[in-house]
Amino acid sequence: MVEVVEYLKTPPSNESLRKVIGQLGIKPEELVRKGEAIYKERYKGKKLSDDEWIEAMVENPVLIERPIVIKEGKAVLGRPPENVKELLL
């Protein structure tokens, strides 16, 4: 079964975003979409702590890289698509 979460309509909580980042095994800043206008306007060139990056994504969910696919407690970014294939095998 597939559950699609449209996080722009229902943004993740701080806690749920932390969990996903843990499942991805990355630093919060690695999940930030650096091409977004809000990133360029507010965050580009700034050194934020992990907590500050998470809060920035909770407040501005458009900053969250997508898609994220989660299966059995493991997560991958769907870019490139091959990441998803490896998770599903």
UniProtKB/TrEMBL annotation:
InterPro entries, sorted: Arsenate_reductase-like, Thioredoxin-like_sf
Recorded coiled-coil stretches: none
PROSITE patterns: ARSC
One Pfam match: ArsC
Highest taxon, organism lineage: Bacteria
Similarity comment: family membership: Belongs to the ArsC family.
PANTHER family in alphabetical order: ARSENATE REDUCTASE (PTHR30041)
Stated name of the protein: Arsenate reductase
